[in-house]
Structure of ABC transporter ATP-binding protein:
Amino acid sequence: MKRGMFDMDEVTGRSLDWSLFRRFLGLVVPYRRSAAGAMLLLPLSTAARLVQPYLVKIAIDEHIVPAQLAGLEWIVALFLFTVFGESLLGFGQAYLAQGVGQRIMADLRKNGFSRLLRLPVSFFDRHPSGRLVTRLSGDVENVGELFGSGVAAAFGELFSLVFIVGLMWWLNPELTLVAFTLIPLLLLILWLFRRSMRGAMRQVRSRVADLNGYLAERLAGIHEVQLFGQEQRTLEEFGDLQERYRQSSFRAIHWDAFLFSALETLSALAIAGILWRGGSGVLAGTATFGTLVAFIEYVQRFFAPLRKLSAQYSLLQSSNASLERLFQLLDEPPEETGNPLPGGGKGALRLEQVSFSYDGRTPVLKNIDLSIEPGQTVALVGDTGSGKTTIGRLLLRFYQPGSGRILLDGDDLAGLDPELVRQRIGWVAQDPFLFAGTVRNNLDPRRFHNDQELFKLIKRSGCSTVVERLGGLQGRIEERGKNLSAGERQLLCLVRALVQQPAIIVFDEATSRLDAGTEALVKAEMDQARKGRSALIIAHRLRSVSTADRIHVLHHGCIRESGSHDQLLAENGLYARLWRLQDLANGSEEL
Ligand SMILES: Nc1ncnc2c1ncn2[C@@H]1O[C@H](COP(=O)(O)OP(=O)(O)OP(=O)(O)O)[C@@H](O)[C@H]1O
């Protein structure tokens, strides 16, 4: 698959970043007691583990070699005690550390989702939903592991290393130097690994996000995939993404394997050095046999944490990229809240010289002047892509105009609380969306009415048959309203818009998908809904707006003509031409 065919997730993540890490520690603060407990148990369990080879040395040097069996049972008992102690302490440590990790995950998921819900719609234009799902699932998991399996464990391993080197030096400095002559080589290998692993982990995260994004998009459009026989092509594209993901994972595994075998080799070389120098030392009487055995054991235990540290390093790298992505999300500025709306608005709207572009480059609306007086019905017509829906979105404050201003009952929309604006302006969308859940939760999400009032409104809006078929207010609507026809969905969305008793109602192609019979029904309900409030009707079919008080004809983002139906026909301009075209087509065809 070509790069760019499906937007690649930005490859983020610097090397281990302390500012990110400090911020991560802030997530641990609420659980500091458990975290401190986990950190405290770590050195204790490590000490219990590392004292074991020393006990073996004593057993050999003081009891077995000199054939002094008295007291050996105490050494064995102590040995067993440290083994059980290590298990118990290790269990307690893992329990506390993993608990902290799980709580951090829950917090991040909740905070991330809560931020997503408050982000402006323009954010979702830039970020495919599949990628956002990856952030709240995969990235959160990674960060959660950072404490349990990452930080706490790394702290333990580092403690082990220092403890081992200290003990070895205390037992025999010369043998310690022999064991660690390969340290420069070890550092070189670790540096190489660290550099390569960082790039590999970033790529893995980025490619898994691509894969998830693609999956989410294709599953959402499964009807179109099947309709256009795209199963094979989709499979191939998925296969390509999957292959890219596999390759990057493989690269990461390859580096992991490299480090594992390099450390194994170094460990074996160090043991060989100890056998050679230590063996001659035992024969010359400068070292004891017990020290030799303990050294071999300690060298193995020195390289084991390094292997673990390298695994933790991969984890830290991938968590770093995940942390960066999650913090980016948490730092996204939420939609501005603005001032509360003064009460008693009558539903007057005014657009003054409004211009707008989605991407900051291509103008979609240019210097729009338009007003709706209280109780008036204004219509927007124009060809596909001329910017009608965009005007509706600006009215609902989903986007802010690039220049110019919009006044709602005299107040600049830019300074008003969007939630309250959306309560005052009802919206019946072109492609209405219903959530999986009860009829009640869908129709009256803000709980404006009790059941009786709601049912009255449903009846008045002519959709009581639909609601009864679904099983009443507690009846179930499936995901995206797929157990309903387009007309039924449109009718329910009309009720949903009316429930909040808006001063202004916007119909965006509300009847475009309906058959003649249902269209007449919805149209009648729309006429009913317009009574006593201002309305903006966005439509292709001129017949459906001919009775509007004022009609604006939009062309390439500019208002080309304005007036009543009769005035526009008399002007004999674009509107009149479109009207004749639609009339020719029996008034039933779209533009
Ligand atoms: N989210 C978006 N991001 C970028 N461009 C967009 C977005 N939504 C719409 N556009 C572009 O803005 C222009 C106006 O779109 P808009 O939906 O307002 O047209 P419309 O007049 O309502 O069309 P239609 O009658 O087909 O619904 C189009 O060129 C469209 O491609």
